[in-house]
Amino acid sequence: FKVVFNPSFPYRLAHTVVAFFVTTGFVVMGVGAYLMRRGRSVEEGRTMLSMTLWLLTVLVPLQMFIGDQHGLNTRDHQPAKLAAIEARWETARQVPLTLFAIPDDKAERNLFAIDLPWLGSLVLTHELDGEVKGLKDFPADQRPPVAIPFFAFRIMVGCGILMLGLVLVGGWLRWRGRLDASPAFLSITQIAAPIGFVAVIAGWITTEVGRQPWTVYGLLRTADSVTPSLTGFDVMLSLIGYVAVYLIIYPVGLFLMLRIVRKGPAIAAEIDVEIEGGRPGAPVRAGAVELREGEVR
Fold first, then answer.
1. Which segments of 92-179 are extended strands (E)?
2. Beta partners for 54?
């Protein structure tokens, strides 16, 4: 019970759920932009773009706030992961914000780094003089590999900044009454349709690699989580099976979805269908009947 409902659970849950809505939202906006640029089902595309932009105007900033709170939680409960994400080797205060670096695990330093002074402590602790633990505070066998979570995290954050920028530009165009009249915005929105998937995958890599070498942080190592009877052949067979299934599911699913998008929303045509059951579609109005004397009908 405690393994699942641990201190990071509410933050991870909120961050993941909002990420799914944001990812779906950008797909819907991209499809709407595509329909508008193609000139078919324009009204439907305009509705998709406008309604989803309102939603993302709320969800994208909310996701950034939740991510910030998740980072504070990670600092308290998984400090080695945070140190790897930031490629921080020494424990210090007033640490810079590292925009880019080339981490070297063996040398326990960054071969190259682009830093912004003091901003690291401000972002990670919300204090200019906040202390951030370094990787050297942890035994070498209890540290995650640095490069993978470091770069994956920056890809995720970069996607988030691009999303926010697109939402802000969309809001500005709406305010000026040009939301559906900017070819450049529609093109960029269409291209940005899969950006949420990139962010989600990068975030997943950051989380899973960043907690190594632990399955349960500080309690159960990944190496000790393997079933003793499991062999290399079993793993290979299972992996081949998964790969085969997903190589069928994903291409077929993508093909079907793209075909649906190309066709656009179905428009129901009003067609008068002949009633074959003998029951009239409206009350029968009998015409005047002329009867002659002695005639029976």
1. 92-93, 97-104, 109-116, 131-132
2. none
Question: CA angle 14-19-20, nearest 5°?
Answer: 105
CB atoms within 10 A of CB 248: 10
Quote the pTM value: 0.84
Quick one: tokens of 94?
Answer: 């007033």
137 in a structural domain? no
Residue 179, domain extent: 9-85+147-225
Residue 113 falls within a domain, yes or no?
no
Amino acid at 153: F
- C-alpha–C-alpha distance, residues 51 and 59, integer Å: 13
| Whole-number Å distance between alpha carbons of 157 and 248 | 31
| Angle in degrees, 0-180, between the axes of helices 147-175 and 195-210, rounded to the nearest 10 | 150
Buried b (16+ CB within 10 A) or exposed e, 34-50: bbbeeeebeebbbebbe
Residue 286 placed within a domain:
no
Note whether 179 and 209 are same-domain residues. Answer: yes
Residue with tokens 């797909």: 27
Phi and psi at residue 103, to the nearest 5° = -75, 145
Per the structure, the count of domains in the chain is: 2
- What CA–CA distance (Å, rounded) separates 13 from 274? 55
**pLDDT means per 10 residues in the chain (297 residues)?**
86 95 96 90 90 96 96 93 94 92 92 92 91 93 94 96 96 91 93 95 94 89 85 90 92 88 65 54 57 56
